[in-house]
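We modelled the chain as a single entity of 358 amino acids. Its sequence is:
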Amino acid sequence: MILSLLKIFLPAALAFIVGIMITPIMTHFFYKYKMWKKKPRLEYDPTSKSDILSDDFIKINNANEETSTPRAGGMIIWISVILVSGIIFILSQIFPNDILGKLNFLSRNQTLIPLATLLLGSLIGLVDDLLQVSGKGSYANDAIKYRRIKIISIILIGFVISLWFYFKLDMSSINIPFDGKWELGIWFIPFFIFIMLATFSTSVIDGVDGLSGGVLATVFASMATIAFFNHQLDISAFCTVITGAILAFLWFNIPPARFYMGETGILGLTVTLAVIAFLTDTVLLLPIIAFPLAITAFSSFIQIISKKIFGPKGKIFKVAPLHHHFEAIGWTRAKITMRYWIISVMCAIIGIIIALIS
């Protein structure tokens, strides 16, 4: 039992320490190469009907922050995870013993796919960040175009991973809380892709300093807890390592943020969350465990639908997504962030309870 707990918490602590240690190096790199947007969103195509050009958005947007704070801070998260995973694995191979063997959480059936997903998603996001930082070309200046490219990329990632789940892991069903397994058959593949797209849609939460980091840390910590009680110790350790790395990022992202998470962080983490949910059989609990993510994404969805049906005057929120609506009605960013964190913790607790008793 002690070794099991050590396996869960020691790598997480190492990830936090590694994240703190590499941040000064990464920060120097970010500022040296001016890795921030060259144009604020207020300078985008004035014919756009999106909320980013509404009067309410203009009131709450800080263009100076947007063009002076580096993106791609999420690199700190996935680099920390890879370093800790690699260090523990290499040590367990060089010095084979019971303790290091137990600490090694890299396994083919539990953590190889999530780690590969995190790396691939983060690299795709990094490319997006670099193109946005350059501010050149049609991609950087066409929000619709780069969203479509990212969606296509995620569909491809989801398709490949779903094939692995279906053919290699023989997974074709999902668990319905208090009811049991629901067999999907071959429909498991498109359902997997849909869930991955849905979790990626929650990336819109990355809009206020410290908001996404605090919520995602809570979500991955809750997944670690569920995996631990499911006796999936490798997955649990992997989730706590991600949590530790996010907390290191969050240390520097609390207002005023030293850097933003960027697509390299939020894209990698959200698609990885989808994979973890399938591995822990908690897909249908995601809307509860990650309620702040889900409601934020849903707010953008219903705002878009409402405006398409009723026109610009049909807006439900002053600004979407939801956290910007709160900002537009007068909430401070600190209040928004802290209340999101509180709700995130409570929803995670509820989700864990349901997962354990169902």
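As a brief sanity check on the tokenised model: The longest helix spans residues 2-32. Residues 2-282 form one domain.
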